[in-house]
Every structure is written in C-alpha cells, then in structure tokens.
Amino acid sequence: MRKNNVGEIIFGESRNGPTPHPIISLYICGMKPRIPQGTRDFTPQQIAKRNYIFEIIKEVYELYGFRPIETPTMELLSTLTGKYGEEGDKLLFKILNNGDFLKDVSPELLAEKKSAAIIPKIAKRGLRYDLTVPFARFVVMNQNALSFPFKRYQIQPVWRADRPQKGRYREFYQCDADVIGSKSLLYEAELIQIIDEVFKRLNIKVTIHINNRKILAGIAEATGIGAEHFVDMTVAIDKLDKIGAEKVMEEMVRRGIAAPKAEQVMGLLEIDSIEQLAAKMDDVGSESGLNGVEKLQTIWRFLEHSPLTNYLKFDIALARGLNYYTGTIFEVTANDVEMGSILGGGRYDDLTGIFGLKNMSGVGISFGAERIYDIMEAGSLFPEGIVHDVQALIVTFDDLALDYGFGILTALRKAGIAADIYPEPVKMKKQMKYANARAIPFVIVIGDNEMKTGELVLKNMETGVQQTLFLEDLLTVLSPSQT
Asked: Using alpha carbons only, what angle is made at residue 93 by residues 362 and 49, rounded to the nearest 5 degrees?
C-alpha cells in the first residue's frame, strides 16, 4: 500500500500501473459520495413498499381494460419543447450532443451567452418531462397497429429541473392511464372510478377535484379577457391554493390583465356549485362556459348509479398549467396530509395533431407515486409483511450442517418458498441477529440431531414459538398459500 501524488491511498498494482480503491480515494480527497439534488436511492424495504403501490395501480388499470406500454427515457427536444408552456420548457433536462458538442457554436454566440440560441446547437435530446407527450408521439408512430379507442397505462420515471422540496423531486415515477380516440365523457367517469378505487385500496382518503377548461374560457369571456391573456389568467389561477387570492390577482395584473378584470375573475372564482355557475354563464351569454358546465353535468350523470368512496368536488379554480388540456381537468388532494396534488389529468382534444395525426381526442390521469408513498409512510398505511423478501432463513451449527442445509434450501426454493441460508456456521446469536435485521419471519435450525432424525426446528421469529417438522410438513407450513 502506498500514496500517490494527490494523497490517494493505493491498493495493489495492475498491468497499467497503480489501481486506486474508489471509495477510499473519494474520502481521502474530501469527495464524499453524493447523488444529484432531487434524486434518491431506495433500499430493498422501500422498493417493496413502492412496488405495493405500483401493483395496486396496475391491478386497477388492468381491471378497467388498460394495457401497458413503455417509451424511451429520452426523447428528441423537438418532441418535448412547446408542449408544457413557457414554464415547463424551462424545466426540461437537456442532453448534450455526442462528441464535440460545441463544434457548431460560433465564438460570437458563446460570447453573447444567449442560452436559448445555443441550446438547439448543442442538445437535440432531452429527458422526458411526463409520459403524456411521449404517448402522443407513440400513438402517431404506431397508429396503424393500434385499435381505437386505445387504452394504455404506463409506469415509468420522468425528470423535471424543478426546485426540490417536500414531495417534489427532479426524478420521480408517474403512473399514467389514457384513453385516446374517443370524445365520450364516459371515459372521464371511468377514470374517476379508477381514482376512487385505487385510493380506497391504498386506504388514503382524498378529494377528487374536477373542472373544465371551457369553464375557464367562459370566465375569460365573462370578464372581457382576450385570448392573448387566457393562458396568463389560467397560470395565475392555478397558484390560488399556494399563494392566495391577493397574490393571484397581483400576478394577473403583472401579466397584463387590467385590475378591474382581475377583480371580476376573483369574484367568479367564489362560485362553488355547478348550478350557480350555469346561471352565471347563461346571464353573460358565454357559450364556452355553458358547454363546460354541460360536460361536467354529463360526467355526474354517468356516476349517479356508481357511488364513490371519496368526495368528488367541482373546483372552479382548478386550472392546471399544462397547455395541452382542452376539456375536463382532474386533480386529487389527500384529506389528512398537507401534500399538494397527488394526481393530475384531463382531456386533450388534439395533442397528436402536433405530430401530424388530427382529431384524435384523448383523456388521461397520472398518479404521483412519490407523494403517495410519503403519505402512506407518514400515516403507517403500508400493510405488515410486504417487506418480507425472504420467508425463511436456514441457520446451522457446523460445516456438515451447512452442507445439509444447502440441500434443504434447494427443496424450499423448488417448492416456491423464498428462502436463504446464512453462509457460515458462526455463532447462533449472530445468525439470528441477521434474520431479525432482514425481518425474516421464520428460521430453520439445523444441527447434529436434525441431520440424524430428519426433523427440522422451525422458529417463528415474531412469536418465538418453535415446532419440529419433517421436510414435507415444513414445506406445507411455509408454502405461500399457508403464509
């Protein structure tokens, strides 16, 4: 062992010279291992809990006839840019071109430091921001192989260059379901049923918020806000629950909406029933507003004979910032935890049109798995036993017992029982401590007597109860159907 010229401790030699141990080198140089801000590692226990959430969502999706697809981690920036509004474009992670990515950038352009002009020359790809736009691209590219209406679900990670905070990460999973190729509002009702069923199974009490972008268009019509400021109005309204009414009004004014019109908007946002809104839209003669009201009433009618476990709430202030929503919009919040939105979604009338396939209406939702996980962890909502990756651990007293135990291990696994064996016949206390650390529910003890008689000691690690069983009986007790 020796030190190199930067103070690294070097272990061993290779044909090409000294080979540093990476972890030792990092610490000696003062570089502790880190991960990018807004990302996380997951332990086996955490993975088991996340998979529990994913499996419930997947089961419900498939119950309603949705089929899985996957799309690449990265997409062309031309696919992603311009689909999420100005704010969303800023949050796209860009991937530098291969090789000399600066070769097409002039020194003059670099000197000007105008990133908007430089980015198209140095990056042609980006990490996906969500799963909906890649899905639209997928539909257009595979339209001849699909049967419409096409119902798909997708559970994959996405990336956003957002400011990390509680419940908000830069890398996170989305669990999407979309129906494309139909304008029927039956699918909105079906998605509400899916939302309700998933959260019922997860034991999370939620409120399902619903609105329609056409109602927001009606508010703009009623207050005289032109099309050029419609997005400004909705972006500001979307922040109501975060910054409050006064700040929302200030933002509308800052975005160019006259103060009297902004005041009228805030007044309309106090309407809390569809009937009251219908009367107001009728008074001002807003065709868009009345159309939005009619669509919500149709959805409610579909659900009349399907009682929900959770509360479905008309929320006139629900705007959602994504530019591609054109009709119904959804959002879900947890009732008992302050966490923000844990699901979002809505209808998009022509998202595939940007890729050349016109008049292909769709509607979809996306569960926020990371926030759902945090809520379940905080509320101790995960069922006991889901982190048991191994059902039984074999512990032994000596090398002969270890050899014998390996044969028992093989028999357990052939019977479909997840099992493991401690690799050395060390002190029994150490082997038991390992079983407890792994939360393994059963231990099988093998010593001289067990090898002579063929009767094995099975200990329940939770109750401490022990029983002596022949292998055939042991397999029955530990079989997945019994445990």
From this structure: 70
Q: Is residue 138 part of a domain?
A: yes
Model pLDDT, residue 27: 52
Residue 88 lies in a domain: no
Write the DSSP string, 336-400. Answer: SS---EEEEEEEESSGGGGGT--S--EEEEEEEHHHHHHHHHHTT-SPTTTT---SEEEEESSHH
CA atoms of 316 and 445, how far apart (whole Å): 64
Label residue 314 left, alpha or beta by phi (over 0 means left) and psi (-120 to 50 means alpha): beta
First to last CA, the chain: 52
Element (H, E) at 176: strand 171-180
Q: Domain check: are 220 and 233 in the same one?
A: yes
pLDDT (tens digit per residue) in 264-290? 889 888 888 888 888 888 888 889 999
Q: Say yes or no: 11 and 74 in one domain.
A: no
> For residue 87, is it within any domain?
no
Same domain as 242, residue 184: yes
Contact 254, 294 (CB under 8 A): no
Cβ–Cβ under 8 Å, residues 440 and 461: yes
Q: Are residues 218 and 280 in the same domain?
A: yes
Judgement on whether residues 264 and 286 belong to the same structural domain of the protein: yes
- The span from the CA of 392 to the CA of 419, in Å, is 5
Instruction: Determine the average pLDDT of the residues in 165-179.
Output: 89
DSSP β-ladder status, 74-76 and 94-95: unpaired
Model confidence pLDDT, tens digit, residues 120-136: 889 999 999 999 999 99
Dist. CA 247–CA 383, nearest whole Å? 42
The number of domains in the chain is 4
Is there a contact between 193 and 310 (Cβ–Cβ < 8 Å)? no
pLDDT, tens digit, for every residue of 85-107?
A: 778 888 999 999 999 988 888 88
Six-digit token string for 290: 């009345």
* Closest to 410 in 3D by CA, of 475, 347, 480, 316: 475
Rounded CA separation 223/284 (Å): 9
Mark whether 137 and 226 lie in a shared domain.
yes
Say yes or no to pLDDT of 25 above 80. Answer: no
Tokens of 457: 């000691």
pLDDT tens profile 336-354: 988 889 999 999 988 898 8
